[in-house]
Amino acid sequence: xxxxKRRFLKWLVGLIVILWAGVAFYGxxxxxxxxQSSGLTTVTVGYQKGDPVDIARQRGELVKxxxxxxxxxVYKQFQxxxxxxxxxxxxxxxxxxxxxxxxxxxxxxxxKLTYIGAGSAKPNGSGIVVKKGSGISSIKDLKGKKVAYxxxxxxxxxxxxxxxxxxxxxxxxxWVSMDQSAASVAFAKGKVAAWATWDPYTAQAQVxxxxxxxxxGVGLSNNxxxxxxxxxxxxxxxxxxxxxxxxxxxxxxxANTHKSKLIKMMxxxxxLSSAVVKKMVMRRSYTFGAMTKSITKEQQKIADVFYQSxxxxxxxTVDKIVTYLKE
Length: 327
What we know:
Layout: H1 3-38, E1 41-47, H2 52-59, H3 61-68, E2 71-77, H4 81-90, E3 95-98, H5 101-108, E4 113-119, E5 127-131, E6 146-149, H6 154-165, E7 174-177, H7 180-188, E8 194-197, H8 201-208, E9 211-216, E10 226-230, H9 231-236, H10 238-257, H11 259-270, H12 274-282, E11 288-290, H13 293-308
Parallel strand pairs: 1-2, 1-3, 6-7, 6-8
Antiparallel strand pairs: 3-10, 4-10, 4-11, 5-8, 5-9
């Protein structure tokens, strides 16, 4: 290659680098200017499909209410509680909506989280399902049989409690851990005799798979929704937490008084039949509020059962990590 060509290539590369840097800087300035001009503080909330945060997201009022208080709410969807809490720990989200067991296992693992708010109990939608005509009519009939569940979720706690209530030990059944989608297939194909699950999977099994509810979660597992944050973020953003809990509560009040609209909305977003969603919605109530001592005791019971059964290797005190918001 001639010296002239070499000089030309160096000049061209240099020009490209300068142009790229200029475009990047301009983009940064534009983003920064946009952020400053809006005057809003971004709050990122993680959720799963069909949960209270998802209902609030679809309704749209929470975003408006938070904007009036100076916040821009960004929603991020996750597949399960474990990935939600990992995102929370990494700082990619500020709040996470999870079920009742992920926070317990995360605390035992040393994650510096805190409970911000809690939803109503929904034990009627949780349960252990079996096929009609299977000959299984009680929990004791599950002895020696395979039961599907998902490790680290409310289904594991529910199954432990159901076996204990029936006077059985955990070793009396064969535990088959798999995600809920895989469990649904295994149950449909008869690869497991029973399936410990929660709505909408419970409702799907009943409506679509000719399943019967061997037991629900009443007296066994309340299966609440929780809003979780990190201890450091919550300490610095008390007002933000108060607003979120308040407006989530208002959305849940709407859900309770507009169940026909809720069923239609969730059928579309979850891509489930109205029959499945109706069964799920009509057997629960929707509320959301600040943490209470009684709800903290419920969480402590989960922690105690998991520790005593060997699921957790660390004994934890839930009350130490709860943020009790003032109304």
